[in-house]
Design a protein that fits this description.
homodimer; 237 residues; alpha/beta; Rossmann fold; six-stranded parallel β-sheet; 34% helix
């Protein structure tokens, strides 16, 4: 497998970074090719703006997605986006490791989605969910949290983690066509003992070691279930 | 009322910017004080990093929330964060206007949450949801979308918009203590006629004009319902 690991944590010595390093090690031991995008280390620019487009479809009014499409067609995407897009298109498995900030990804990772998931390449028109540009690839989220596990789930104060991660799991990874694996959560990380952390890291390693065989994906909408609007109209004979 | 309007759209002539301008106009006509943070115009830095802290609680290992707390206590928050935090603490109503990017806010706005919602000032320990630091303030989201209204809701392909916005509506605005109003959605904006856009803008203006009286808030968790862990233990007499 060709694996892209996108990592976004401000502290290079963090537990989350240890999860990233463990993933690299486990995957390489299995003979996979691993590419890492460490967004903080790269000082990745997360702000989607008109400045991304040296040559504009419409120089007077920027619709970001339309400019992405234009730039992709004309080979004028900026180099940082093109580099990340090439890594993404080449991978079989996308792994994201990040700490939960405001029940979502850190801004630097949100901006990776905003800028790298290029309209016209990754999605567009009727190409989304099972017809998205990343169809056939798998995706795994590895998230570290301050919260305890009992704060989540149906009876937890915040509700199910997978509901809170829906914009990511479904709205981003599923939308672009990825088959999305159940996320891995490292609970309460800033507050637990080194021994407890070692156990979490061990569970992460075990999960990754068996990942090749995992085919238990989160349910996603299927365009076929949603009528003619999303589906080709059969041609008359 | 003192109103803070945080706006995040890459195109200054966008419909979303027209919603921001309309809000300023309607609120000022009503005699309210309006402050605007136009994040793209300000070139707001959305990346929460150790660089935010000139004086560190722990110079060797950055736990962002703990450094926020330390900096808030010692008056060493960087100026851009302090300025935004002061605006936020001074407001009675927070209004966010943004286009939906990947079923969430643009990264520049996500980073405003990551950096400005300072631990120790806005939340921390048992101060969240109804006990959050912004309790007593109201919040309104005004979002523009490419999607059509029929793509959302219980039978829509993406599911209810309010579920997809849960990390924002509950996990951010509700978590910090705001009373959160039902979001306003401008559907299918890039694809509709100028006449249809004028109608959406008129509906937005009408909503804002009546906002002072709105007390129909989204349901949020109440710490009192979740046991001793979140609540003061009664002292023995």
């Amino acid at each position: 497998m060709n694996i892209l690991l996108v990592h976004a944590h401000p502290e290079p010595q963090s537990f989350c970074a240890a999860m990233k390093d463990a993933a690299v090690e486990v995957f390489r031991q299995q003979g996979h090719t691993v590419t890492v995008s460490d967004l903080y280390a790269m000082r990745f620019n997360p702000v989607a703006s008109a400045e991304d487009f040296a040559s504009r479809a419409n120089p007077d009014y920027c619709v970001y997605a339309l400019e992405q499409r234009h730039a992709a067609e004309h080979g004028t995407l900026p180099e940082d986006i093109r580099t990340e897009l090439d890594k993404l298109l080449a991978c079989d498995l996308l792994v994201l490791t990040f700490p939960l900030f405001w029940f979502s990804v850190p801004a630097i990772l949100k901006g990776w989605f905003d800028r790298v998931l290029v309209s016209g390449k990754i999605y567009g028109g009727k190409r989304f969910y099972n017809r998205g540009g990343l169809a056939g690839k798998r995706a795994l989220v590895g998230v570290t949290l301050g919260g305890r596990e009992d704060m989540f789930g149906e009876s937890g104060i915040h509700g199910p983690l997978e509901t809170l991660l829906k914009p990511l799991l479904q709205g981003t990874l599923g939308y672009t066509g990825c088959s999305v694996l159940k996320p891995f959560a490292g609970w309460h990380i800033p507050y637990i003992t080194p021994q407890a952390r070692a156990q979490v890291l061990q569970a992460w390693r075990a999960r990754l070691a068996g990942l090749d065989a995992e085919r238990d994906f989160l349910p996603m909408p299927d365009l076929a279930d949603f009528g003619a609007r999303y589906n080709p109209v059969p041609q008359k004979g």
